[in-house]
Amino acid sequence: MNIITKTASLVTAVILGASTWTSSVHAATFSQIQPYTTDYKIGFTDGNKLVTQAIYDDFERSSKNMIVTKGGKKGILDARTGKEITPAIWDYIDIPESKNIAIVQKGGWFQYIDLKTNKLSTMKFAGAHPYYLSNEQGTAIMFLGKSSMVIHVDGKVLIPPVAGKLTMVQLVAPDQTENKEAEKKRYFVATTPKELIMYDPASGKKLFALPKAELIPNEGGPDTAYLKVRSGGKEGLIDRNGKYVLEPKYNALYIWNNGYFQVIGPKGQGLWKDGRMLAEPIYKEVGFEHNNPDVYYTVSGDVITYHSKSKGTSHPLKKGAQYLHGSYVLGQDPKTNLYGVLQVGGGTVIPFAYPRAEGPPAARFLVRSDGKKAILPGWGKDVKEPDFWFDSYVTLGSYSMLSIKDGNKIGLYSEDEGLVLSPVENRIIRHEGVTGEVLVTEPDGRVLRYSISGKQIEAVNPNTLSDDLTKKYEPGKGGAMIVDRKTNQPISKLYQYVYMDSDTNLIVAMDHDWADLYTPDGKLLTTEIKVAVWKSGNDGPPLTLIKVADSVYTMGVRAGNVGMAMIKVDDGQLQAVSDFVYRDANQMIVQNQKIVMTAWLDGTQDVWAQEGNQLVSKLTSVKGFHTESYFDRVLIQSTTGWDVYSPQLLRLSTGDYQSMKYMHVYDLKTGAIAYQDKKTGLYGLMSLEGKVLTAAKYEAILPTSKVFPQVWSEADVQTPYVFTTKDQFGYLDQGGQEQFATRFLTKKPVVSYSPITFQSFTAYSDTMRQRPLELIDFGKPYSWPAGGNSESHFFANLALYLNLPKDAGKQAVLSELVSKGIIKADENRSVMSDEDMFRVAYFMATGKTSQAMTTPQVLEWAQKRGIVPFREGMSYYMTMNLYAEYQHILMTELMRSLKGKKVLKPKVLTTTSLSDAQQQMLTTALIVNGKPANQLPVPLPQAEWQKAIQGLVNQYNKQAAQLLAAYEAKL
């Protein structure tokens, strides 16, 4: 059946004369048809003309075809010409590997279209499944039904229609069943009423036919070299040549890993592997050890017998024996009931002479009749008769390290290293929770440190700082001192921790909210001025030091000053290079250039960059700053507007624009910048060098891949940018030239709103949970500005809650919390902990302190309260923002504490001052032409948007009080 019809040709004729086409001076001929949108429907153009009307809802692109969707049905267009191959009448279409066969489905039936001839198959099938064969063989499609067949995606029929069931199977070589990386080869198997037939997948050649047999599929099962078949109601195994390796005379066969088969017969279970019946099917239970495929076992009555497949040995033990590792088994002699250890394939390695065995989880122990214990070696260690015994043990942080006690003597045991220290008197062993290490105080006073693996840490001397200095931990004091290696005397006070910064060759000594810097020979650089603790990113070091030539820059603090200053270390001297006016700082790297943003107390910022051999303040009173991956420029907002700057902070544009947005184009080395004119609000295109490519005459400029995500990876055939005006949709090339334009709207869009009620307007609850300050006035100037240091934002809000000045600072806030008994005093506290935040929340919720509550009790309360942050996965920890989480808890408890007191008031929203968060929330309730506005590929024209959003803002403001009341009721 030919899908191309006269009707389609007539429609094409009408399309070519459609009035929505707008000619362009720079019209281009596209190598493939490109999508356009009119009235928020999709059509296609070749650049010179419209080849389809805008009648589609969606599309998928393959290399030679477009799968289009219209009214929930799918069709296919030729991607070069736009010619209709099949109309949109199908429920499902797939073109595997974008080759020559299209799978189409209507209702419960599948057919295929040969895209070389555009012919539809006459046969209908109940199912269709593409199977990847190999790099050389490509993909084949198996069609299933009363008659089944296999077609290669190139169009070649591999297996003509056969009356029976087809199945794809994959087999490994018989000698590779224990190799988890073994190559698997695929075959097609047909089961007909008369026989079982296996085909070569590449050629479709029949490999063998087995009469009166049917395949038992192994879908998703372990790797195997054999096919399970049923013949005469019994099960057996055949190889890839069609020969029986296990005759079909068993009730059931189950494929296990490592080439084992469980065999079920009338008398019990058996085990088969590699052409051998290892155990006849007469046992109550059979199995094998996954970590050692040579070891298998059989169970009869109360006896479990371990066997070595390679050595042919058998070892009976009482049921309940425990496989250790390798070929070792711990168990009881069936006659004496005494415990010992044997090696399967060998003999007894620990005599069966012990009345008891204990463990795990800590370890496995043999117990003598006098109660003394011995540890069985851990995983991978040789097992031998114990050479030391003890009375009891204590775990040290984990089960891998044990403190063992024999009378008054104490020893140290490691799962990895064995007996590390033989028991002696007057030894003290403890686990240090902060470092995770084990500290051993010897009878002579020496302190030894061991890692969790049992290695002595001092052996690799990790405490060395420089040729002249080392650090010395002070057990029990929670810190370290810097020590002169020659005199072995401390030259510093006790710090929280000390480390050598390899980039700057300076020693950093951390102490709560500030740090000292020392030279490698021990000179203290920070006397009057200390270094402020600030980080650049969650995965950065605890202190940010910026090396520029031979100098080092960072942020400093000084007693009596509220703010921080930029400080410089040069030639062994430290000096401030700015006033103490900054509240926080942030470092970033653009094209290998270091840039530092320093924020004033009022929120404005200075921008520092390298100039020669110095870091200098290049820009002041900056209001906004933006850069991102793949973008080797910087967008900066001054008091007059936005402009683009080089990594060296040279101004490249001079427009003082309303906004700027970098647009990255997939697979291109460069992108462009969409700039917005202040007066008109319209957009133009600018190069990364700041050159204006187009005038600001567009209502929107967007990357094509954002408008049509289906083309995101096709930069070689896709024009990079889409533009819209109030009445046009079109394309711009990289240089800003218009490549195509057509009508954007031919009729007024139909705008409606979802109900603004608490139950249906879920975006309101989401915004209240995540950013309540966007919607609620709390009666105090709480804020959470974009960018900057989240720690300083949080403590500013917490200061307001405690009735302190907003700029009181972190230490003043912590001191106030301690003085009120809200959190416990801790001279080592440098950051808020989860426990601290939960105690603050408890005070906010109850008006009482939690001093009488233990840490577990506070955590239990927080869990019941629902304020414990969910933290899981590497992606979370790469982006986690601790103080943003604490801000969420603070605002949640603040709302709860003010509930019903008529303090919380909804903010009145206006269209002229909508924030991004407010706009995103409202847009979820806006419907345009039956689609949610936040799902539109391009925004409404500005005039239409203003009308739509104004109506929505009015509705929201009318309902805001009711929404807040409903939300408060849920708190």
Describe this structure in words.
Helix content is 13%, strand content 39%. With 971 residues, it is mainly β. The strands form 20 sheets. Strands 48, 49, 50, 51, 52, 53, 54 and 55 form an eight-stranded antiparallel beta sheet that branches. A five-stranded antiparallel beta sheet has the order 1-69-68-67-66. A hairpin with a 2-residue loop joins β54 (565-570) and β55. Mean pLDDT is 90; it is low at 1-21 and 874-878.
Largest sheet, strands/sense/barrel: 8 strands, antiparallel
Distance between the termini: 64 Å
Oligomer: single chain
> How many whole angstroms does the radius of gyration measure?
37 Å
Structural class: mainly beta
Write the layout of secondary structure elements.
Layout: H1 6-16, E1 21-22, E2 34-38, E3 41-45, E4 58-61, E5 65-70, E6 73-78, E7 84-90, E8 92-94, E9 101-106, E10 109-114, E11 119-120, E12 127-134, E13 138-144, E14 148-152, E15 157-162, E16 165-171, E17 185-191, E18 195-199, E19 206-211, E20 214-215, E21 227-231, E22 234-238, E23 244-250, E24 252-255, E25 260-265, E26 268-273, E27 276-283, E28 285-289, E29 292-300, E30 303-308, E31 314-318, E32 322-325, E33 328-332, E34 339-343, E35 348-354, E36 356-358, E37 365-367, E38 373-375, E39 392-395, E40 401-406, E41 409-414, E42 418-425, E43 428-432, E44 437-441, E45 447-450, E46 469-474, E47 479-484, E48 497-501, E49 506-511, E50 514-518, E51 529-532, E52 546-548, E53 551-558, E54 565-570, E55 573-576, E56 582-590, E57 593-600, E58 605-611, E59 614-622, E60 624-626, E61 634-637, E62 642-645, E63 659-663, E64 672-676, E65 683-686, E66 700-703, H2 704-707, E67 721-724, E68 728-732, E69 738-743, E70 751-753, H3 762-770, E71 776-777, H4 790-801, H5 810-819, H6 834-846, H7 855-865, H8 874-879, H9 882-898, ...
Antiparallel strand pairs: 1-69, 2-3, 4-5, 5-6, 6-7, 8-9, 9-10, 10-11, 12-13, 13-14, 14-15, 16-17, 17-18, 18-19, 20-21, 21-22, 22-23, 24-25, 25-26, 26-27, 28-29, 29-30, 30-31, 32-33, 33-34, 34-35, 36-37, 37-38, 39-40, 40-41, 41-42, 43-44, 44-45, 46-47, 48-49, 49-50, 50-51, 51-53, 52-53, 53-54, ...
